[in-house]
Amino acid sequence: MESSLVKDNPLLLPLNKEKTIYDGFITVQERDFRLRILLPPDRQVKQARLHCCWQLKHLLHGYEHIVKQRQQQSPDLVTFILELKTVLEVGLKSRHECRSIPPPQYYAQLISEMETLGWGKLLFIDTEFRTLRLKAEDSSRRQHILNIKLKSKHPVEAPECSADLPVPLAITWTPQSTLEQLHSQFLLLLESLTEFWDVLDEIDSKTWILEPEKPSRSDTMRRIAIGNNTSIKVEVDPRHPKMLPECCLLGAEHVVTPLRNKLNANMHLWNPDSSVLHNLRDVLEIEFPSPATHEKSSFSVECGICYSYRLEDAIPDQVCNDPRCGQPFHQACLYEWLRALPSSRQSFNIVFGECPYCSKPITVKMAAQKS
Questions:
Q1: Where are the extended beta strands (E) located within the chain?
Q2: Which Pfam families match (predicted)?
Q3: pLDDT-based confidence at residue 297 (cuts at 50, 70, 90)
Q4: Over the stretch 165-218, which tens digit does the pLDDT of each residue have?
Q5: Mean pLDDT of 339-363
Q6: Is 244 helix (H, G, I), strand (E, B) or coil?
Q7: Is residue 276 predicted with pLDDT exceeding 90?
Q8: Last residue of one domain, picked from the residues 261, 277, 297
Q9: Residue 37 lies in a domain
Q10: Considering the domain boundaries, does residue 35 fall inside one?
Q11: Distance (Å, whole) CA 38 – CA 60
């Protein structure tokens, strides 16, 4: 046992012939900790007394009951020292995973920067003084929030920043940068997107938006109601918001085809100096239903299979092409319905079958799998 103890702990040595007093160091994860062990005359580990350095006491704080239990169960000193090292490894790992407390200069620097920026721009700060939310207002008086996560070596390390934007939040940061400079960069980015948000705000206020249900400032797509079970999905480019957006017409073919033909024929009429909504009206030769002229319930037609409008985030966008039917369905509902019918057939990712309402031919693509 003695040879094994010395071999595993060469810095922990007996101080007397009886080998009841050991003093020295035990090594854990390349760190040495001072330890003194006093054994009774019969050298029973159960009755041993331990004297530790303050670093060792700090690491064992909260693990005392485990150390005591190991001491009572260990048959000899070699086993106990091995068990003690295991507990220390756990303690070192947990301490390492805990966030280090920033130095006082960190807090002084943060308070100084906030005083320069203005406390009125601070919406939130957590108890660790690491996470901040700053408010900003663009020239159209829209409110925005900049989320900032500071590093412990602030301002040497660049903070993590995020915001509800349709473009990446690219921030320039140096060790000399401040929160005020960060906020100024954010304001400049907001101003570059003002025209984009103006375009979408006009669409949101003057048409009925089917999707997204609650648009965020990062959303670039709008699905606009045209009529019963007919809509257009537009994707606006944040960098070129006045240009012709990507358009996708949705609905029964006998309704959508004439609109698609008008879109292709009148595309050359698109005027970048006019608003996107005004251009869409001219190119499609239609007037969009608006909150001033129609109730949204007129376009919120339930799925003919599940009898609900929203299925998670989806709305009924599969429509029977027969003009006398025109019943809408969720893509997932129609796919599952047709797949269960013996008369349906599938080719690649498209299922061919009969409309549940009028029995006329209808097709649906396989529902996309969520990742």
A1: 12-14, 21-28, 31-38, 49-52, 122-125, 131-137, 143-149, 160-163, 209-211, 221-227, 230-235, 246-250, 318-319, 328-329, 345-347, 350-354, 361-365
A2: FANCL_C (PF11793), FANCL_d1 (PF09765), FANCL_d2 (PF18890), FANCL_d3 (PF18891)
A3: low
A4: 999 999 999 999 999 999 999 999 999 999 999 999 999 999 999 889 889 999
A5: 87
A6: coil
A7: yes
A8: 297
A9: yes
A10: yes
A11: 18
Interatomic CA distance for residues 289 and 326, integer angstroms: 19
Asked whether the beta carbons of 46 and 71 are under 8 A apart, the reply is yes
pTM of the predicted protein model:
0.62
3-state secondary structure of 365: strand
C-alpha torsion 83→85→88→90, nearest 10: -70
Provide the CATH number for the domain around residue 361: 3.30.40.10
Query: Encoding tokens for residue 343?
Result: 């008369």
CATH of the domain at 278: 3.10.110.20
Give the pLDDT band (50/70/90) at residue 102: confident
Query: Both 185 and 247 in a single domain?
Result: no
Supply the range of the domain harboring residue 22.
2-97
Q: How confident is the model at residue 293 (pLDDT cuts 50, 70, 90)?
A: confident
Q: How many residues does the chain have?
A: 371
Mean pLDDT of 39-46: 90
* Average pLDDT of the segment spanning 129-147: 95
- Flag whether 371 is in a domain: no
- CATH code for position 187: 3.10.110.10
Residues 285 and 199 in one domain: yes
Per-residue pLDDT tens for 52-79? 888 888 888 888 888 888 889 888 888 8
Dist. CA 289–CA 295, nearest whole Å? 9
Cα distances (Å, whole numbers) of residue 29 to 32, 33, 79: 8, 11, 18
Residue 96 has pLDDT above 90, yes or no: no
Nearest in space to 150 (alpha carbons), one of 95, 117, 190, 113: 113
Residue type (1 letter), 313: D
Same domain, 291 and 209: yes
Domain count, the chain: 4
Which of 273, 297, 321 is the C-terminal boundary of a domain?
Answer: 297
Assess if residue 350 is contained within a domain. yes
